[in-house]
TrEMBL record:
Keyword match Transferase: yes
Entries under Gene3D superfamilies matching the protein: Vaccinia Virus protein VP39 (3.40.50.150)
UniProt keyword annotations, A-Z: Methyltransferase, Transferase
Keyword Methyltransferase: yes
GO BP terms: methylation
The protein's name: Class I SAM-dependent methyltransferase
GO molecular function, one term: methyltransferase activity
InterPro entries: Methyltransf_11, SAM-dependent_MTases_sf, Thiol_S-MT
Highest taxon of the lineage: Bacteria
Residue ranges of every copy of the Methyltransferase type domain listed in the record: 50-143
Classification via Pfam families: Methyltransf_11
Amino acid sequence: MAGGDSTGARDGLWERFGAVLYDPFLRRGERQGLAVRRAELLRRAHGRVVEIGAGTGLNVEHYPETAEVVLTEPVPAMYRRLEKRVRGHAGMRPVQAAADALPMADASVDTVVSTLVLCTVLDVDRVLAELARVLRPGGRLLFCEHVRAEDPKLARRQTRLAGPWAAFAQGCRCDRDTIALVKQRFDIEDMSTASWRGMPSVVHPLIIGTATPTR
């Protein structure tokens, strides 16, 4: 749900309004389990880490102290809040950049983190190709994303509400089959499913796991 690619890099009134509401809107979901899931996932981050669509920086407190983390975010309003949250955290550097145009050399990153980002980017395959480009051999993608439901009734509701939800959530697609898209570029090492409690039902289905680029 955070900004990810260059298409979301506007700094209009709606983007600034969304940045103000982002943390309060997610607060209940964080308290009802997502913060714990973030912490469990990010314990696996190591070496040189790049987070895409870092938003306001809700992952910042969960990274291992030994990790060298670059947090990227293209939306100016989100980025300004990210800068404030990162202050005082050694080894963390915010960079205003889009997930489809990362300022990193080929094969230079050990871990890429994507939490609630692939739902929002316009061209998921382009972003995933960029993540594969920057990852070193053996590097991993850590992901936590909401996805299209397997339950037919909920999937139909997601389809019906996809347009209104995207208008409200600044482009977030609640009906995106993210698992299938990730598998086009990455081999999934492990994956679990969960429910994003405390949030609207159209974004309840979650996937959490790790993947490596298909070579």
